[in-house]
């Protein structure tokens, strides 16, 4: 399984994913689930994936092939699409097509071919947008009322986002919120694991302004986790 979260804020986009993939307790691997595409000054797109690894890898591979095709047009390449809505539509159509192809084979073995994706980014002249793409290819979009989207094991990390995130949240607080959301998920679900990938896109920068991988021995993340645990314990004891 996995956990990915994206925030759409007035100040920019903040995205975080884990890297654990498991096909049983004795078959746990690490795979990147965050993929970035950018033409600085023109457009930036980030995708995060959850679900069947074959489906997500094939979807990303085909989208990348379309980008690199010398005959690519605004109808075939996400890097030439006229707006982020068209990008989401292209990704949804590809995900739906790959899911259907894979499902025909997986059904014979009673295995799931389901996968979902988060797509975020901005095109020059357009606004930042954040979408959740379902296996069927349809999607929903983040709004000021609901400025974050999650895929995978989302329930453990949702409460802190509900309490602290709004469209006006500063990027520094947003970074902290997604990391603590992930920390809560890591503690409660073994199917989510380190290392983590984080990307930040400042509003109208049209490029990734911060990208980092957080390893299991990251001291800053460990200190944040410990401080959050202590803060929760202190708050619990103070409630009468």
UniProtKB/TrEMBL annotation:
Coiled coil spans: none
One GO cellular component term noted in the UniProt record for this chain: proteasome core complex
Record carries keyword Protease: yes
Pfam families given in the database record: Proteasome (PF00227)
Listed SUPFAM superfamilies: N-terminal nucleophile aminohydrolases (Ntn hydrolases)
GO biological process: proteolysis involved in protein catabolic process
Keywords (A to Z) from UniProt: Hydrolase, Protease, Proteasome
GO MF entries: peptidase activity
Name listed for the protein in its UniProt record: Putative proteasome-type protease
